[in-house]
From TrEMBL:
This is Cytosolic Fe-S cluster assembly factor NBP35. One of its GO terms (biological process) is iron-sulfur cluster assembly. One of its GO terms (molecular function) is metal ion binding. It comes from the Eukaryota.
Length: 354
């Protein structure tokens, strides 16, 4: 029987939930010299004096999570793990996640998975055309919902009794489900596991980072739009990655202008008043993976659960995305032909929106 949020299976509802209620939850910014909530000095160091979280950290259980070795073993067959992050919502992070996964899966030799950790706003199943599916449980664990023979998805959306039901959970319960996605899902042998995260730096990000630390994270791809209000939060995301020890594969500027499909004229929809993603990447010494222009067909593809990457290969946005995917692979030390099928290096390498 498929697990659902209406009748959650034992580890989420009872035993795991009661265990996770003991975990600390930071409710205020850490002091400048914070030893960290997992440190033996948590709540006891000089820097902890006056911190609102002092008692929470001091009373929290110390030591590594006992399930981390189980997670590491479960993910032993996953070669590459990529986090997709954004500082602000609405920049196209989940959309980029689906296009990145479709791009990887366009190589029939690649096995690809998407793990949707946006527990309160799971949009990946809709974008992948599988929102009506449910999770199947086998004797080896939960089975991902397969979009195609080599592309699978896991999301809380598959557990909702009704499509429009809200998930109103506090941090510990969300963390428990993320742990189950890693510990109980039969991911099998995969080339790429792409992890979609909610905006910002919250419980979900801390959970994924701590759970995946031992099994290894290739790095994070940061998504932004050109305007300063988005870049402002991406700077915080970069700081989070540095503090959490997550390698940054690079920065992608999404919605980078609009290229007319008829005359190829480029229009700036969101003006880069401070230099956009390229300048931010330069200022922070982060690789710039590329700029993806707007295309109305991207939204249409997401609404219908179809692959923009497969259906509109002639789009400037698709050509830019291919270059982003190849550069992402290069940052992971992979050959471009391993990441994507054979491609023609023509004018797509010299685009007006770069």
């Amino acid at each position: 029987m498929a697990p659902s949020l209406e009748e959650p299976i034992q580890p989420v509802d009872d035993a795991l939930d009661s265990h996770l209620k003991k975990a600390p939850a930071l409710v205020a910014p850490e002091p400048e010299h914070c030893p960290g909530p997992e440190s033996q000095s948590a709540g006891k160091g000089d820097a902890c004096a006056g911190c609102p979280n002092q008692q929470i950290c001091a009373s929290a259980p110390k030591g590594p999570d006992p399930d981390i070795p189980v997670i590491t073993q479960r993910l032993a067959g996953v070669k590459h793990k990529i986090l997709v992050l954004s500082g602000k919502g609405g920049v196209g992070k989940s959309t980029f996640t689906t296009m990145l996964a479709h791009a990887f899966a366009s190589n029939a030799d690649n096995m690809v998975g998407i793990m949707d950790t946006d527990i309160c706003g799971p949009s990946i199943p809709k974008m992948m055309g599988v929102e009506a599916e449910t999770i199947h449980v086998t004797n080896t664990g939960w089975e991902p919902v397969w979009v195609s023979d080599n592309l699978g998805v896991m999301s809380v959306q598959f557990m909702l009794p009704n499509r429009d039901d809200a998930v109103i959970w506090r941090g510990p319960k969300k963390n428990g489900l993320i742990k189950q996605f890693l510990k109980d899902v039969e991911w099998g042998d995969m080339d790429y596991l792409v992890v979609d995260t909610p905006p910002g730096t919250s419980d979900e990000h801390l959970s994924v980072t701590s759970f995946l630390k031992e099994s290894g994270i290739d790095g994070a791809v940061l998504v932004t739009t050109p305007q300063e209000v988005s870049l402002l939060d991406v700077r915080k995301e970069i700081d989070f990655c540095h503090k959490a020890g997550i390698p940054i594969l690079g920065l992608v500027e999404n919605m980078s202008g609009f290229v007319c499909p008829s005359c190829t004229h480029q229009s700036e929809i969101f003006r880069a008043t401070t230099g956009g993603g390229r300048q931010l990447a330069k200022d922070t010494n982060v690789p710039f993976l590329g700029a993806v222009p707007l295309d109305p067909r991207i939204g249409m593809s997401c609404d219908f659960g179809e692959s923009f990457f497969d259906n509109f290969g002639d789009s400037p946005a698709c050509k830019a995305l291919k270059e982003v995917v190849r550069r992402t692979g290069e940052e992971m030390g992979l050959d471009a032909n391993h990441v994507l099928p054979d491609h023609e290096d023509d004018e797509s390498m010299d685009r007006p929106w770069h």
